[in-house]
Known about the structure:
The strands form eight sheets. The protein has a three-stranded antiparallel sheet with strand order 1-2-3. A three-stranded antiparallel sheet has the order 4-5-6, with no helix packed on it. The protein folds into two domains: 2-86, no CATH class; 120-297, Beta Complex (Endonuclease - Pi-scei, Chain A, domain 1). Helices cover 12% and strands 36% of the residues. The longest helix is centred in the C-terminal third of the chain and has 12 residues, at 286-297. By secondary structure, it is mainly beta. The termini are far apart.
Amino acid sequence: LRSLTFQAIPGGGIAMVQVQGDHICHAAISHAKAGRTDVARITYAWDADHKWGRMTLEKPEETQVTSVYVDNPCPLSLEDIRGLMLGRSDQTFSTDMVFAALSDQIEPVGPMPTLLPDTPLATPWGYTPADKLRRGDTVLTRDDGVVPVLQKVKRMVPARGSYHPIRLRAPYFGLQQDIIVSPDQRLIIDGPEVEYLFGQEAVLVPARHLVNGFAALKEPCGSTISYTQLILPRHETLIAAGTSVESLYIGRIRRNSEHLVGSLLHSFDRSLLPEHPRPAHHVLRWYDAIHLARRRAG
């Protein structure tokens, strides 16, 4: 008997049970830690030789990461993986599941890049593609003027589900040209309506909630896509082709060695990583973000 089950726990948690003959391994993330969210990402990684496994539940819109470790996990055979993904075995996928993907590597979890490499970012010398910027270069920010680039991160991901790119079209959002971003890229939205509805001068809204068929729409693409982003001393507002987008928010990840080692930032000197105590602006919950987007579209 071989089986692998991921099941939602009432309230938002996740439980995993894997059976291979007499060997059973399991892990759970309680609902008290998980909470409710519009989008959740589950990552399960294992290293059978070292008897190590990890299940992670992420809420991208809240930059929250919760991991639990699995002792002596059962390895999945290539045959079982192929049968699972191609529907050749007895399987049930929840209707709420957006996509699933497999990797031959232990994939990072935590802060992820969200801009296409050719996204033009404002610098003191004009717009420069994000991928051309390096540590020590400077960029223009909306609130703090010229600031240095501390690090740049990049990653190739499946162009599906919560990674499927979104085209933001000019002249909406103040754009001078179209740009393509990850659904998790947050824009800074301001104006009298924002202040009236939320009591804030500006708020952060994930691009996924701006999709309406004309100002923002899903971008056709291949099976994978590469994203990049900048780490700045503070969580800042970058100017991308005329619109305001956030730089990469990493929180206080350098204080948590387990999260840091499992993240895309693992190769950086932790003493040189900044701390972002809180986002630069209020982050709208998914229902508020959708409400604001609909009002603006109307």
